[in-house]
Amino acid sequence: MDTIGGYTQTEVAGMSEAELETRALIKAASALNKVKENWGESKEEMLQALERNRKLWSVLASAMKEDDCPQPVEIKQNIINLASFIFKRTIDVIAHPEPNKLDILISINMNIARGLSGKAE
């Protein structure tokens, strides 16, 4: 095992669920922002960033539907609604690519990450 891989696995193993979710949301937002900043350079990179973000939100929405999810009903419904919006926006970006359409996806991820980490805007 390489040193960096071992460090990353150890670091992740010591994180709470909220910390892992925060990190995943920030990473997805960063990938989307990179696509926006380098718009037109790589359609494949755009598709990969959108797919990673969609998968992340699929996991988050699925977790809200679990019987043992500790979140209040209102929070669960809000996350599910956000996921639905993200799925629709993802399809829209793929069908009609425009860099400014990524702004809301980046913003949602960063705002949820900020909330999970307990930091206000």
Structure write-up:
With 121 residues, the protein is mostly helical. α3 packs antiparallel against α4. The radius of gyration is 15 Å and the shape is globular. The mean pLDDT is 87. It starts with a helix and ends with a helix. The longest helix has 23 residues, at 73-95. It contains five helices and no strands.
| Main structural class | mainly alpha
Spatial shape: globular
Task: Give the helix tally.
Answer: 5
Assembly state: single chain
Distance between the termini: 39 Å
In brief, what are we looking at here?
With 121 residues, the protein is mostly helical. It has 5 helices and no strands.
List the keywords.
single chain, Four Helix Bundle (Hemerythrin (Met), subunit A), mainly alpha, 5 helices, 121 residues
Question: How is this fold's topology laid out?
Answer:
Blueprint: H1 3-13, H2 17-37, H3 43-64, H4 73-95, H5 102-117
Helix pairs in contact: 2-3, 2-5, 3-4
